[in-house]
Amino acid sequence: MKNLLKALGLLVVVVVAVNSTLFVVSEFERGVKLRFGKLIEADIQPGLHVKVPFVDDVRIFDARILTVDAQPASFFTIEKKRLIVDSYAKWRIANVETYYKATGGVESVAHNRLANRVNTGLRNQFGTRTLHEVVSGERDLLMKNITDDLNRTVLGSLGIEVVDVRVKRIDLPQEVSGPVFRRMTAEREKEARELRSTGKEKAEKIRAAADRQKTIELANAYRDAEELRGEGDAEAAKIYAEAYQNDPEFYSFVRSLNAYKNSFSNKGDIMLLEPDSDFFKYLKQQDAN
């Protein structure tokens, strides 16, 4: 029984010793090792590591990209117009030793300091731009400049890298929003009038082109019809001439029959002619026969 208790006691001591001696840093973490409060090893890489029990202390930090959500702040543009800006920044630890010395490894301290510097950077950038440039004209350039300016300062002072800075929302104070909205409405109405005017101009050009094409098509059709009619009349005259040359007497007879038909089409028609007129030439021949 005593041997069993000794074995269990020894096992407990071994477990405590191993637990106090070994520690693990995961792939998304970084750490520093302290000995009696003094930094002896910075930027401990992922993996299994050894420390001196009850002498060394290890601090582990999250090395992933983190987000600091700055409080909405009031900024002025170059036109002295006030804006309420809500922003956030993405950051990560770049130098573990500098980060620990500047913040004590406390993430909230890093957030507060970075948020203040983000607001300072936004204030400086907004102060050199107009309202239009800030709202819609140069938003990407504005964010890039702020990110570059922050990295030039926080990398050396806080040991962190700013990955990106973004503006979530820009609000106008009550004294500014009314005139701005009216100006925006006037600009949109002006643009709408210009678009309508351009549309009407294009419509008139299209109508004029269509009318011109219609006139050309009708003229061409009339020309072709007249040419065909002329060709038909010429062909008919040619046929009549050939028929007249082949048998002049028959041609004269046919014309006389047509003349009789047209002359006596109505019962009330009266004609006064001399008996020996050529008009009754073929009628007389019929009576004689």
Describe this structure in words.
- The protein is of the alpha+beta class.
- The protein has three domains: 2-62, no CATH class; 66-171, Band 7 domain (Tetrahydropterin Synthase, Chain A); 247-288, no CATH class.
- Helices cover 59% and strands 21% of the residues.
- It contains eight helices and nine strands.
- It has helices spanning 2-21, 96-103, 107-126, 131-137, 139-157, 174-246, 248-263, 281-288; strands at 22-25, 29-35, 38-44, 47-50, 56-62, 66-69, 73-76, 82-93, 160-171.
- The strands form three sheets. Strands 6, 7, 8 and 9 form a four-stranded antiparallel sheet that branches.
- The protein is rod-shaped, with a radius of gyration of 53 Å.
- The model has no long low-confidence stretch (mean pLDDT 80).
Query: Helix and strand succession?
Result: HEEEEEEEEHHHHEHHH
CATH overall fold name of the largest domain:
Tetrahydropterin Synthase, Chain A
Total strands: the figure is 9
Mean pLDDT score: 80
Strand content: 15-25%
Q: Going by CATH, what is the homologous superfamily of the largest domain?
A: Band 7 domain
Q: How is the biggest beta sheet arranged?
A: 4 strands, antiparallel
How big is the Rg?
Answer: 53 Å
The CATH architecture of the largest domain comes to 2-Layer Sandwich
Q: What fraction, in percent, of the residue positions are helical?
A: 55-70%
**Alpha-carbon distance between the two ends:** 169 Å
Number of separate structural domains: 3
Structural class: alpha+beta
